[in-house]
Amino acid sequence: MTERIVLAYSGGLDTSVAIGWIHEATGADVVAMAVDVGQDGEDLETIRQRALDCGAVEAYVADARDEFAEEYCMAGLKANTLYMDAYPNVSALSRPIIAKHLVRAARQFGATTVAHGCTGKGNDQVRFEVSLTSLAPDLKCIAPVRDLALTREAAIEYAERNELPIVTTKTNPFSVDQNVWGRAVETGFLEDIWNGPTKDVYEYTDDPAFPPPADEVTITFEKGIPTKIDGRAVTPLEAIVELNQRAGAQGIGRIDIVEDRLVGIKSREVYEAPGAMTLIAAHRELENITLEREQARFKKQVEQRWTELVYDGQWYSPLKQNLDSFIDDSQEYVSGEIRMVLHGGRATVEGRRSDSTLYDFGLATYDEGQTFDQSAARGFIDIFGLSSKQAAARDVRFGKDKLK
């Protein structure tokens, strides 16, 4: 029986040409496996057929939309994941679930080798291979695009020479990765970081300079997870999809950054994540009224480390699992409603309420009926400032004048 290699197939340029390259280099038959993580765009049956047309002996699509939304996107939401304070780990969140299904496919088809179409310059090669090593250390992994150092121009030329049915051409050189959590665009003229994105870069969002009328939305959370939109019950997947549409119509969630890649390169990336950015803004605000002060401060440190681990491909690492435990425990009281106005590129919180809120009107108000004992403030300040007072007195003894 001819050896089989399972390829993580996206339907794009690199993985389409990789089918032929793998077969020519190894003699093995290629099984193409695509994972549906809500990328929309092309019909997945079209992508499956493209894999067969490019030479795969078998091709199938794993429907992982709900799994991705519930287990990966919601983990990112609870962690308020924003790499470099901007990027909600759109691609990074999808790689470990694709790797998991790649391992399942290898077991199903009796393959001892898997493959991906990543280059040697990107983060995804690390994310795939570290996830694969964590899940199935016995599997071998090859990366023909990286290992043969094939350029994008060479890949396009190969595809055209072999008449492969690809959508990327010399006149449309963007590299696009998308899923329900967002969309990533790179390469082409975007590599000149002085160039601004043109309108054709965007698909998930409309121009925020010409928005439709403002859209008010109320999002209900239970333990950090969105469960209702405007009072209607939704699954995590449905919540993301609806907010992609509503926030996307307002131009919310456009991100244009020069990003620090794990491999040491600074790379210009353009992202669209309307649903993700809206949900993160709402979730953060709900945490503002439900997390205790020191808990909230520490969680921000945990969030940053969690985000870096996921960005760096360490989804299955022991530390990331430990941080998951803290984050999940922190969500015990993160339940309630957030009212937002979506308009002109911004998701603005206008109202918040929760049965588990730590906001006390009686303590906060300056009007009659306040319950805060202001007489306690003087003694608190004396004690709180005592160490600073002692240090200042020492400065005076040694002739140090802070006013000079």
TrEMBL record:
A single GO BP: urea cycle
Subcellular location: Cytoplasm
InterPro entries tied to this protein: Arginosuc_syn_C, Arginosuc_syn_N, Arginosuc_synth, Arginosuc_synth_CS, Arginosuc_synth_type_1_subfam, AS_cat/multimer_dom_body, Rossmann-like_a/b/a_fold
PROSITE patterns given in the database record: ARGININOSUCCIN_SYN_1, ARGININOSUCCIN_SYN_2
SUPFAM superfamilies found in the cross-reference section: Adenine nucleotide alpha hydrolases-like (SSF52402), Argininosuccinate synthetase, C-terminal domain (SSF69864)
Pathway(s) it belongs to: Amino-acid biosynthesis; L-arginine biosynthesis; L-arginine from L-ornithine and carbamoyl phosphate: step 2/3
Residues given in the record as L-citrulline binding sites: Y87, N123, R127, S175, E259, Y271
Residues annotated as domain Arginosuccinate synthase C-terminal: 174-390
Catalysed transformations (reactions): L-citrulline + L-aspartate + ATP = 2-(N(omega)-L-arginino)succinate + AMP + diphosphate + H(+)
Residues annotated for ATP binding in this entry: A8, Y9, S10, G11, G12, L13, D14, T15, S16, G117
HAMAP family: Arg_succ_synth_type1
UniProt protein name: Argininosuccinate synthase
Organism: Brevibacterium jeotgali
